[in-house]
Amino acid sequence: MIRPLIFSVCIASFIVWLNLLCFIDLSEAEESIPMTVNATGEQIDCWGIVMRAAKSIIKKLRSCTKDVKANSTSMKEMSEKLGCVMKCVLHRVKFVNEDYMVSDETLSTFIHQYFPNEKMVNYLMKVIRKECLEGNATKLDPSEDNCSSYGKFAVCMQSDLGDILNNPEYCIPKAKDKEFSFG
Predict the structure, then answer these.
(1) Which of 37, 56, 182, 183 is the most exposed place for a label (fewest CB within 10 A)?
(2) Whether residue 43 has pLDDT greater than 60
(3) Conformational region of residue 41, where left means phi above 0, alpha means psi within -120 to 50, and beta covers everything else
(4) Distance (Å, rounded) from C-alpha 133 to C-alpha 108?
(5) How confident is the model at residue 12 (pLDDT cuts 50, 70, 90)?
(6) Which H or E run includes 123?
(7) Which residues does UniProt call coiled coil (predicted)?
(8) d(CA 153, CA 93)
(9) Is 48 within 8 Å of 34 (Cβ atoms)?
(10) Dist CA 31 CA 121 (whole Å)
(11) CA 42 to CA 54: how far, in whole Å?
(12) Topology of domain 2-27+38-172, per CATH?
């Protein structure tokens, strides 16, 4: 009983987050957000990584939301279509192949596209492979009407990416006096 409730809360918060991102205008955002590396070259300014990735992914999210016809104010209707929006986004960012399945190759391509630090890449490959691929990728079903397996996979990915971005071993925390402006 608790597990479905937790999943519903995760999906609901993810939907709110996606809706907010859909309204952010990144057209005036800095084109080149500086990449900050510490003295050892191991830590990266993760805020810069997130902003570069967000700029690319939000455009795909907007078009996928239109394509899936998920532009709804109804939380119930939006949650029913969220999996299909995520399936579309995963395809457009090349995280899934033409058969809408994830592999080590598509995972590697995606991670290298956004994460420039090899230590981060290795960590994400290991964690995502173990927690998301082994648990969910084999359950992805391209023929599902509601694409729920893709929604679950996206929630897993969001969690793993959030974990590394909040880990000082890999990321330099965002300076409190350093605010990013959208225009």
Answers:
(1) 183
(2) no
(3) left
(4) 12
(5) very low
(6) helix 118-128
(7) none
(8) 15
(9) yes
(10) 23
(11) 22
(12) Recoverin; domain 1 (1.10.238)
